Amino acid sequence: MKSHFSTLVVSFCYLQIGYSQSSEADSTLIVNYNNNLPTINYHLTARPWKPLNISRTAYLDRVEGIVRKCVTFQNSSGAIIDPYANREVQYATPYFANAVATLLSAGRAKDLLNAGVAAMNKATIDVAEGASSIPDNHGEFFLAPLASAIPLYTPFVSATQVQTWKSRMAKPIQDILRGSTNNWRTYAMKGEWYRAQNGYVNKTNAISWLESSWINTQKSRFTNNTWNFYHDKTSDPDTWPYESVARSNLLDMIADGYYGASKNEMLTLLKRGTQSSLLLQDPSGQGVAGGRSGNHTWNDILLANGYEIMAELANLEGNTRLAGQYRHAAALAFNSVQRWRRSDGTYYVTKNHFSPASRIGYASYSYFTNYNGNMMYHMAENYLRHKTNISEQPTPNEIGGYTIASDNSFATAVANAGGMHMEVCLRGSTAITNDRYWTTLGVVRFARPGWDSRLGPSDGIRETSSNQGVSFAPTFLENGTWIRLASVPDRYEAFFSTQFVHPLLVRCRVEYKPKAGKTGPTFNNDFTITPDGILSILTSSTTSFGNTWPLLTYDGATTLITSITSFVASTSFSSTSDQQNFIALHSSPTISTTDQTRRSSYGDLRPVRMVSGTTSNVTFIYPRNASDPTAETVRKSFVRSGNDFTSVLGKVIGNMYIGRTSAGGEGTSIDINNDAIPEATFSTNTGFIIQLNMGEITNVETDTDVTAVIYGRTISLQPYTPVSITSPQRVTITAVLASSAQDSNVAANTLDSNYLTRWSAYGNNQWIRYYFTDLVTLNNVKIAWYRGDERSHSFNLQVSQDSIHWTTVYSGQSSGKTTTFESYTIAPVSTRYIRIVCHGNSSNLWNAITEVEFIKVTDPASQQLPVEAITVTNEPIIFSPFLPAR
C-alpha cells in the first residue's frame, strides 16, 4: 500500500509504475499495449461533490454567441476578416461555416443561413484552387470542417449548391496540404476520412493514405513514452495543448467510423493516452501547462473534445464509471473557459482580459478570429458528440492519491491529494519559439475543486524581453543579486520523486540541480499535499536562499486585491471571492516585494521573495474560499512536529490525515475528534477514506477486505466499495430555546448543519437549551464556536429532567483553535434537557455558537448519575409549542 520511490515516478494509490528520468527527449520506442491503463480505484472525494449537469445545448449557446459576433467580420466574398489583423486568417472562414451549419441542424440561427453559405463558398473555392489559395497555407485545417458541414447544410440549400461544394472538395489531398507531419497531419487525416465517408474522394485511396500517414508520421509520436502521450515536437519542452489536439482529431476519425487496418492499434493508444490525461487536467478544468500554444483558451475545449468522444465510447463498452468521469471532465473543461468569455459572446484568445490588440500571451500565429474559430468549431463538435445521458462521476483530479511524471520531452510532474493539485515543470524553455518561452521551470500551478486556479502561480512566466522568470521555485543570492530559478532554465533542471501516496495525503520532492557543466547551489523542495493546502519545505546547499511566491495582481481588467504582511502574501479578485495565500511558517521571515512585476499569459505576476533566515524555508500554500478560515488564523494555529502538523484546517499525523470533510490514510484505527477514543477501527492495517459531515462519519471506503467497527457497529468492507454510515449515537433534538438572541442570530441556527450561521447573545450567564423527546444518556457534547479559532469561550454544561432542577456536568473553556466541532466528554448522565450556560469569551462578553451535537451512550447500563444538583431560580419562562407545559 505504501509507495516509496527514489527515482522519477508515476505513482497511483495503490498502482505504482516508476521509471528513471531520461536525459534524452526521444527514447527507444516503448509500446505499452498490454500495460494496465492508469486507474484511480477509490471513489470517495475529500470534499463534497456534485455533478455539473451541463446540457449539450450549453455548447450551442456558446457557439451561437461567437458566430453572431464573427458574422459582423464577414466581407462580401464570405471571408471572416480578423478585426485586429485586418485580413482573413488561417481557418477562420471554414470554422465559421461549420459552426453555422451545426446551429442550423439544431433548428437555430436560421437568419445566418446566407452568411454560412457565403463562408462555405469562399472556403470550398480556396480548397478547389489548392494550397496556394488557402489563407496562410493552412489546408490541413479546411478539410474536416467543410466535409462535415456539407451534410448539415443539405436540407437548407439546393441540390446544385451541394453538388458544387462536393465537386470542389474532391481536390487531391496532396494539392491541398502544406505537408507538416506534426499535429497538422491529424487534422488532415480527420478531414480526409470525412471526405471519404461522404463520398467526395475515393475511399480505398483515402484509407491507403491514412494508413501510410499513421504508420510513417504519427504512430511513433504515441509509442515513444510510457503513457502514450502525443509528441508534437514543435517546442522544447514539448507541447501539451497539441498532445490533446492530436488525440482528439484521431478519436474523431474513429468515432466517425474509420475501419482501416490500424484502427484497433490507434484506438488502444488513444484510449490509454486520453485516460492518462485525466490525471493531468486540474480540478478547475484546465489542461496541463507547458509547451507551444499554452494558456490559450481553446486548450481546454480541445481537451473536452476527446473527453466527450471517450464518454460515449466508454458508455458503449459498459464502463459507466469511466464514462461518467469523461463526461464530468468535459464539463469541467467547458466551465473553465467561461472565465475568459467576453461580453460580446466571443472569447479572449489567451487566459487573460487584456484587449486582443495587446496580444498578451500570443504566439506569432495567434489571432482573434482563428482561435475564436477554434472555440466555435470544436464546441460545435462537442455538441454533436455529446449524445447520451451519462451520469457524471468524480474525476481522478477530484479524488487524488497519485503522482505522475512524464518523459523528459514534456518534463512535467503532477501530484494530487484529495483534489489539491500541484503541477511542476521540470525543465524551462531556453529558446524562444513563435515569440515566447512556453514553459517555466518550477511549480507553475496549484488548484483544487471549487477554487479559481488562475490565482498564483498562474502557470508562471519567463519574459522574452528581460529573460526574467517567475514561478513557485527557489531563489538564491549570487554576487549580490537574487537569482530566481525560473529565470535561469539554461542552468537548472528539476527531478521529481514520490515518497507516499494516498487519496488524502501525498509526500513528494522536487530536487533542483545545475545542468551538466553548470554551477550553482542545489535545492530540495519537499511537499506534503493535503486537501486543504500544501506544506513546502525548501532546503539548500547554500545559506542565502529563499522561495519565490508568485502573486497575480492584474489580469487586464481587474486589479486584484493583494495583501503582503510580515508573514502572509495573498491575492484575490474580490473580498468575497477565492484567495491564494502563501504563509511563511517562521518567527521572523523577511518578505520582499522589490522585484519587478512580470507579465504572464494570465496577467501581471509579482514575484514576492520569502527568506526565512534559517536552514529551511517553510511555506504553507493555502487556496481558500471566502468562507474558509483566514490565512492569519491558519498561521497562528499552525504547529509542526517533524513531518506532522496541525492547524484549524486539519492535521497530518504520520500517514494519516484528518480534516473538516474527510479523514483517512493507512492504519488500524482513527481518532477524528481527538478524544483518545477511535471512531473507527479496522481488523488489519488498511488504506481508507472517511467522509465527514460536521465531524460525523458518513461514508467509508477501504483498499482491502477488512472488518471495521464504526460507532460500535461491526461492518464488513470490500476493496474500493464505499459504504454509507449512520451514527446511532447522535441524539435527535426536538426543540431549542435561548435566554436571548442577537437579531437573526437565533438559537435554531445551531441545528442547521451550517458553520456560517450562529446563535449569539451578549452578557454573562446567557444560555441556550435543548430538549429531547425521550430520556437519553449522554456522554459527549460537541460544540462549534463562532470565531472559535480566535478566542476561547467560557461555559458550563447543565442537564435536567424537568427544566427546573439543573446539574452542572462540565465547566471549562473552548480551545480557541478551531471553528469546527470541539468535543467535551462528560460522565454518562440520563437527561431530557441540556443547556450551555455561557460566560463570554477571552475578548468580550459575547457568546456565539454555530453548531451543536449531543452523543448518547449506546449501553445505558454504564451510566453514572451526578450527585451535585444546582437549582436555577432565575430562568425566564419561555413558551414553545414544541415543549411540554411546565
Automatic annotation (TrEMBL):
Pfam families per the record? F5_F8_type_C
F5/8 type C domain mapped to chain residues: 716-857
> Which positions carry the signal peptide feature in this UniProt record?
none
Q: Which residues cross the membrane?
A: none
The name of this protein is Discoidin domain-containing protein
**What is the scientific name of the source organism?**
Paraflavisolibacter caeni
Q: What is the lineage of its organism?
A: Bacteria, Pseudomonadati, Bacteroidota, Chitinophagia, Chitinophagales
